[in-house]
Write a structure and sequence with these properties.
Largest sheet: 8 strands, antiparallel, barrel
CATH architecture of one domain: 2-Layer Sandwich
CATH topology of one domain: Alpha-Beta Plaits
Order of helices and strands: EHHEEHEHHEEEHEEHHEEH
Shape: elongated
Number of strands: 11
């Protein structure tokens, strides 16, 4: 794959979600030798994609009938992402993996994160620590370290290997009286602070990655959730529905559930 001019975002990585239906009739038309060669090819392809710098590729058996196979890919260069999509789609032979859904987005920072100045002002407002005290400076240093890690995890995530995966797209409403983009920044930030508190209550149970897709796909964000049980996925989504950000301003697309597994387990699950 020759690329002369990589297409890399100013910050963060590209993220692609790819879901396919398996055409069993087409697969069944192949000889045993052709099927064996196809399975060997996709195995080698997955290894090749994963060997590229800063590229992550997750594999899912999709639950239900919306799709059979799912991939989630993150990488800096859009050329690498596009090449990977084309190769994966053709990997089992012509028209065996039939695309049912795809989503392109970028990892991004939240514009509503607490700033160092806001955190320092909050400490001063508590009246417990003096601004020039060693304890105050230590808390500021700790905050800066936590926010640096938070930013790195948002922009350059290490994708979870947890078994239960959920993806859905979403947008903010622009209805009369429910126009998110008509709110001033401080109002939006206050609402998002409450929304974030719900998510933090599921730390250790649900890991989420919010990626931005404005101008890149049909909705404005993609939400990827990882958990150990479907109960935690259901609970966090349900609880967030009562938060004002979701209840008043959010519109959701279809939800997709997958089980993350090694490629050889997926091949066995599909009886290929």
């Amino acid at each position: 794959m020759a690329i002369s001019h990589p297409i890399v975002p100013e910050q963060g990585w590209h993220a692609l979600h790819l879901f396919y239906r398996l055409d069993r009739a087409q697969w069944g038309s192949f000889s045993d030798q052709e099927q064996a060669a196809a399975k060997e090819y996709i195995s080698d392809l997955v290894k090749e994609i994963r060997s590229k710098p800063n590229v992550q590729l997750l594999i899912f058996s999709m639950v239900g009938t919306k799709a059979d196979v799912g991939f989630m890919l993150t990488c800096p260069d859009l050329h690498v992402a596009d090449w990977s999509v084309k190769q994966l789609t053709a990997s089992l032979g012509p028209e065996v993996l039939v695309p049912t859904f795809s989503w392109l987005s970028l990892t991004e920072l939240s514009e509503y994160a607490t700033t160092e100045e806001e955190y320092a002002a909050g400490l001063e407002a508590e009246g417990i620590l003096k601004a020039d005290s060693p304890e105050f400076r230590a808390k500021i240093a700790d905050f800066k370290a936590r926010m640096e890690k938070y930013g790195k995890d948002r922009l350059y995530p290490n994708l979870a290997d947890w078994p239960v995966f959920c993806f859905y797209p979403m947008s903010k409403r622009r209805n009369l009286g429910q126009n998110w983009f008509g709110l001033d920044f401080e109002s939006r930030k206050k609402l998002m602070a409450g929304h974030a508190r719900v998510g933090r209550a599921y730390a250790g149970k649900v890991r989420q990655l919010i990626t931005g897709s404005t101008g890149l796909d049909d909705d404005e964000w993609g939400v990827s959730l990882f958990a150990h049980t479907t109960s935690d996925i259901k609970s966090v989504v349900y609880e967030m529905r009562f938060d004002a950000v979701s209840a008043d301003y959010a519109s959701f697309g279809e939800f997709y559930i997958g089980l993350q597994m090694p490629l050889e387990d997926l091949v066995a699950r599909l009886n290929l």
